[in-house]
Amino acid sequence: MAGGGLAPTPDGEAKHYNGHVTVFVIVTCVIAASGGLIFGYDIGVSGGVTSMDEFLQKFFPSVLRDEKNAAGTNQWCQFDSALLTAFTSSLYIAGLISTYFASTVTRAFGRKTSMLFGGAAFLVGSAINGISMNVAMLIIGRLLLGVGVGFANQAVPLYLSEMAPAQLRGALNMGFQMATTIGILVASLVNYGTAKLKGGYGWRISVALAAVPALVMTVGAIVLPDTPNSLVERGLRAEAKATLQKIRGTEDVDVELHDMIEASEASKQVRHPWQSILRREHRPHLIMAIAIPAFQQLTGINVIMFYAPVLFKTIGFGNSASLMSAVISGLVNVLATTVSIGTVDKFGRRILFFEGGVQMLVSQVAVGAILGTFFGSAGTGKLSPAMANLVLALICIYVAAFAWSWGPLGWLVPSEIFPMDIRSAGQAIVVGVNFFFTFIIAQLFLMALCHLKAGLFYLFAAFVLVMTLFVIFLVPETKGVPIEEMALVWKKHWFWKKYMPEDHVRTA
Ligand code: BGC
Q: Which residue of 132, 201, 297, 342 is most buried, as measured by CB atoms within 10 A?
């Protein structure tokens, strides 16, 4: 795939970046994307262990008691426990805070330093979790995992977007989401296996195994090169050139390197990225950095990811069938992500956002209607096995839609739109907002299910409608545009162009 990215120059002429997609860049991106494994394993593991009786017995005995007592009574409310949700969501609070520190590390010391730090925090956290004797240890371990994902999610998407040649940036960046979905699936398979172990220690294996992806990322971060953009940003031009030549497979990388140097010169004049991001010309970027991750979470995806086994129990599956159903939706999640990888650089981001939005909306309304009809508001009804299977199928249709739209695009689009000077800060906002909303959903879902009942699914459907309109009117297409040339996209947009200063073509 020769030719490189097409970059229109200020006077409108096409400018070529040289080089092709090398094996080196692909291997590098695959290793870096393993940061997503950590994120995914974590998402998947907590829902499973919190549905294991031995785990509940040891740390949350009151939840187990309530669950047993609730049998045959109100299905909507049987898992409503503040303590249990605090366990699940503590990770996101830690991630939210640490990602701001990560942005400074990523900018000053490079993308790989943040990945290394994230991997190490994660290793320690999973060890503590594996040997937890009480709730305090459990939560401390989980907070460390949060620090790990705070760093990893800040650095890895940037790393991938900067390493990739423009024409393949979408697919390579999505390696992160692919790894995330694999992590979730592996976690649910592990849970399925460990839940069957006699002796009550199965959950320990589940949480401790998080150390495996952490190790992959830590070792990966040691051996990987840093991105040329980051090397330029830190004044290491000769190294940057050598890396660029290696990853693009050609000696002649001057045009691309020149763009990076120019971006970095401009970036040096900005002393405070956090102030710069608030300037009027960065308004579109700021709005995207907040809206895209918020919307990604408001799809309601993590209701399924965290609570799938609980949800499946609610609709009447037994323990083992519930964990199995989580495996099925996890598999759909992985497979559907490949659709996005295969199409995003060809058909663009906007069409995927749109199709995924419509498909999610339809399936959410259908799930709401079925659960509303059969459980009623008292939550005492029962679903026939056929109906329960239909709900499972609809949930899979919903998960597939998320997996080729908001899942990967929710990380890709923000990571490619910022000019270099605010890129690290912008990405920290993305991670922070994402985790904040993940926390809110994790914290409120069980309570909301208890109060809103089937209406909860309609609420998520309404959010999906709003975000789809947002995409139609306000999200520009970024397919194939070199990352340091992105300013042109905003300049041409019907709405955002009024925020772009006339006098400069590149905001970087
Ligand atoms: C989201 C996660 C979600 C996962 C599901 C990611 O893009 O950020 O919150 O659990 O996708 O695959």
A: 297
